[in-house]
């Protein structure tokens, strides 16, 4: 064996320089091919512009590596390993949340790492095995082959710096200041990022997405007139009368409990399927003193904090760059939101999340939002668990504890973000027993586990409301899911087939929106008018809640309730008009002006530091 290896190495020596050069030059192409295969793409199906754009990106990175390392061997090794790791990471991210890695995900690395161990990874997929074998081959050849280095020279180094500065600056200006990529056919598929990445290539798509991290001022933006068009065009009395029958006659302000339940979605909104028992019997059948309906959110299978952001602030992800995480990018100081509005009316505000508080930067954001207390997983004593997550029952016990310790003279606002149903539904029956079973499909282990968890959430919520029904203080509860669960893809393939479409070609907006639909409920332990609001969206829910509780609202809240008369529901994909039709943002509709007005209002709220009108987003004390 030693002789074989020795002879192999000796034969390599005759062609050392050629092999080193060829391998280094081929490495960008190998990395390009590898990442595309890992994401289910095919470089031979890309158009020539996409191929050239991606190759340019890989060559640029390898060029920088070589300039820094000045070694053929180590540039080849490091570059290939780096891109293989990126490719595998993207493969699993896309598999778990149905969206590839986006530029904003770089800010979410800590949160992603904290839950990564709770998922099951199939490394035996041929899309991983084949690139891995090629990687090993490249590494073996590089190790056996002679290493060639480029000698350090001040002139050479300065020349390299100059070249990369010119190329880098020119490229940045081309991408961010011109329509060059659009003109050569490389557009961002905001509709289906997975499809866009496969059509245009990973690297080019990632770079193309990065330009949307820059939020530009809306056309014809005037901070002095924001919201006036919608307010003027709407019936001045209609909005305030919508929930007039729900207004309590009690002088005491109600406690408010908001529960955002992790992954609590009902897949049957897509298409029916049969189970051996109902997985949310209580929530499904709530009626007395209940306002109910479905709600559009802007995320699927993950990025919980974006639903949270829409609910608390009334802002919409529709006007933010694809892949944005506002908690990590845009919430950098105190801003008007549901919490601050309630605080101004004498409420004490507490946040509860039975998971590490640093996730999604909550420990910082909650302070900026006005929460005086934040209980995370470290504040739970001997909680119960399902799988590796604290149960909803224990999460709700913390709500009871906070209520029982509250001041008698101040109402309480509690915002509880649960964790029980978090993704990663591959735990064995010895860890978690799935009592809910889908009876008209096969191979639904993950779906069964999720539905069984949902049933336990349903039971825990019922127990909480039973407790609240027995307390003396008026209390309102709003309950909603953050997104649909990231269960096995084949389950979603099947129910979309039953719907008459395909998971991989959701060209109809109404079909697509079913992936982004979750239930919501508003309940009170005193008399309110029962209503079914149909479909709303997360950005409206806190305004509806304030109105139902007969509390003061900011001008922004009032604007949103007016807007809802014309646009009942909206999210990152599009919106539903008062005419019942579904619209995309890039098409003209009878509601286009209202959408533009909302965008301006939100821009003033989030980005206009010089002309922000704080009074519009808060209430007078």
Strand percentage: 5-15%
CATH class type of the largest domain:
Alpha Beta
> What fold name goes in the CATH topology slot of the largest domain?
Alkaline Phosphatase, subunit A
Overall structural domain count:
2
Outline of the structure:
This protein has 621 residues and is of the alpha/beta class.
Which SSEs are present, and which pair or pack?
Blueprint: H1 2-13, H2 16-38, H3 48-69, H4 72-97, H5 109-116, H6 126-144, H7 154-177, H8 180-183, H9 193-200, H10 202-210, H11 228-233, H12 238-242, E1 255-261, H13 281-284, E2 290-296, H14 304-313, H15 326-329, H16 338-343, E3 348-352, H17 362-369, E4 373-375, E5 385-386, E6 389-390, H18 392-404, E7 412-417, H19 445-469, E8 475-481, H20 489-499, H21 509-513, E9 517-524, E10 531-537, H22 538-548, H23 555-566, E11 569-570, E12 575-576, E13 582-583, H24 592-606
Parallel strand pairs: 1-7, 1-8, 2-10, 3-4, 3-7
Antiparallel strand pairs: 2-9, 5-6, 8-9, 11-12, 12-13
Helix pairs in contact: 2-3, 2-4, 2-6, 3-4, 4-6, 9-10, 14-22, 18-19, 22-23
Keywords:
621 residues; alpha/beta; Alkaline Phosphatase, subunit A; 2 domains; eight-stranded mixed β-sheet; three-stranded antiparallel β-sheet; globular; transmembrane helix; transmembrane; Alkaline_phosphatase_core_sf; cell membrane
């Amino acid at each position: 064996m030693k002789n074989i290896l020795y002879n192999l190495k000796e034969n390599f020596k005759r062609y050392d320089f050629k092999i080193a050069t060829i391998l280094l030059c081929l490495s960008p192409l190998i990395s390009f091919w590898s990442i595309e295969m890992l994401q289910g793409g095919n470089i031979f199906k890309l158009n020539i512009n996409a191929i050239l754009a991606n190759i340019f990106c890989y060559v640029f990175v390898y060029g920088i590596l070589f300039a820094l390392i000045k070694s053929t061997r180590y540039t080849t090794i490091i570059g290939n390993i780096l891109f293989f790791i990126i490719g595998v990471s993207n493969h699993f991210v896309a598999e778990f949340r149905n969206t590839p890695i986006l530029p904003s995900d770089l800010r979410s690395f800590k949160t992603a790492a904290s839950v990564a161990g709770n998922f099951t990874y199939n490394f035996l997929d041929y899309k991983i095995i084949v690139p891995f074998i090629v990687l090993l081959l490249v590494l073996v050849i590089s190790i056996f082959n002679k290493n060639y280095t480029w000698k350090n020279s001040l002139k050479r180094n300065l020349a390299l710096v100059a070249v990369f500065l010119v190329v880098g600056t020119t490229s940045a200006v081309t991408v961010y200041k011109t329509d060059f990529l659009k003109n050569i056919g490389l557009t961002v598929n905001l509709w289906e990022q997975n499809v866009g990445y496969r059509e245009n290539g990973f690297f080019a798509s990632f770079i193309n997405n990065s330009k949307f991290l820059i939020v530009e001022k809306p056309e014809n933006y005037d901070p002095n007139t924001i919201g006036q068009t919608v307010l003027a065009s709407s019936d001045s009395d209609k909005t305030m009368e919508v929930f007039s029958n729900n207004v309590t006659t009690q002088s005491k302000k109600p406690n408010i409990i908001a529960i955002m339940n992790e992954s609590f979605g009902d897949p049957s909104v897509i298409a029916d399927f049969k189970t051996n028992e109902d997985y949310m019997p209580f929530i499904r059948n709530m009626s007395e003193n209940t306002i109910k309906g479905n709600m559009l959110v802007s995320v699927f299978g993950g990025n919980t904090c974006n639903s949270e952001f829409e609910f608390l602030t009334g802002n919409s992800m529709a006007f933010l760059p694809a892949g944005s995480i506002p908690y990590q990018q845009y919430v950098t100081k105190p801003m008007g939101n549901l919490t601050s509005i309630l605080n101004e009316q004498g409420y004490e505000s507490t946040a509860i999340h039975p998971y590490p508080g640093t996730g999604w930067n909550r420990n910082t954001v909650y302070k900026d939002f006005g929460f005086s207390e934040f209980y995370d997983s470290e504040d739970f004593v001997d909680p119960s668990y399902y799988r590796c997550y604290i149960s909803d029952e224990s999460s709700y016990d913390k709500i009871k504890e906070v209520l029982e310790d509250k001041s008698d003279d101040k109402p309480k606002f509690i915002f509880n973000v649960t964790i029980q149903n978090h993704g990663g539904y591959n735990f064995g029956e010895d860890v978690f027993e799935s009592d809910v079973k889908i009876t008209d499909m096969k191979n639904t282990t993950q779906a069964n586990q999720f539905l069984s968890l949902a049933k336990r959430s349903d039971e825990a919520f019922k127990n909480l409301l039973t407790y609240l029904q027995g307390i003396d203080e008026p209390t309102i509860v709003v309950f909603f899911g953050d997104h649909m669960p990231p269960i096995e893809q084949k389950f979603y393939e099947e129910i979309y087939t039953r719907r008459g479409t395909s998971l991989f070609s959701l060209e109809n907006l109404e079909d697509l929106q079913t992936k982004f639909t979750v239930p919501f409920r508003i309940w009170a332990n005193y008399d309110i008018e029962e209503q079914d609001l149909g479909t709303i969206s997360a950005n409206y829910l806190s305004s509806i809640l304030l109105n139902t509780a007969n509390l003061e609202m900011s001008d922004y809240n009032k604007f949103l309730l007016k807007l809802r008369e014309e646009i009942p529901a909206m999210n990152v994909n599009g919106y539903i008009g008062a005419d019942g039709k579904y619209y995309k943002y890039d098409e003209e509709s009878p509601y286009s002006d209202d959408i533009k007005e909302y965008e301006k209002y939100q821009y003033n709220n989030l980005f206009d530091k010089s002309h922000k009108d704080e009074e519009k987003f808060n209430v007078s004390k």
